Amino acid sequence: MRADLYSLSRVLYELLTGLAATQFPQLPDDLGTPAERKQFLELNEVLLKAGNPERVKRYASAHELLKDLGFIKAGGSL
After folding, report:
1. What does the pLDDT look like over 3-21, one tens digit per residue?
2. How far is CA 2 from CA 36, 38, 55, 56, 59, in A?
3. Distance (Å, rounded) from C-alpha 72 to C-alpha 60?
4. pTM of the predicted protein model
């Protein structure tokens, strides 16, 4: 499961940044408005955890990842 979440983090990174997965975790130069920047940086924290090179530091399940995404969507901060 952790390998699948690792792969998902790379795909989401490419979709959200427009950068190649090999550039992970580099951020794009233009992150938009301050509100968009804050939201992007929160989402980036999820991507960093899901895509951590050390397997034991990744999400243990998709449920954990979804929980953090829901928290961000509700306006929370990791």
Report:
1. 789 999 999 999 988 889 8
2. 28, 26, 7, 9, 7
3. 19
4. 0.82
Burial class of residue 9 in the structure, from the number of CB atoms within 10 Å of its CB (0-12 exposed, 13-18 middle, 19+ buried):
buried
Residue 17 identity:
T
Task: Please work out, in degrees rounded to the nearest 5, the angle formed at the alpha carbon of residue 18 by the alpha carbons of 56 and 74.
Answer: 60
Give the sign of the dihedral formed by CA 67, CA 71, CA 72, CA 78.
Answer: negative
Q: How far apart are the first and last CA of the chain?
A: 22
**Which of 9, 44, 42 shows the shortest CA–CA distance to 28?**
44
Binning pLDDT at 50, 70 and 90, where does residue 1 land?
low
Any idea what DSSP says for residue 76? -
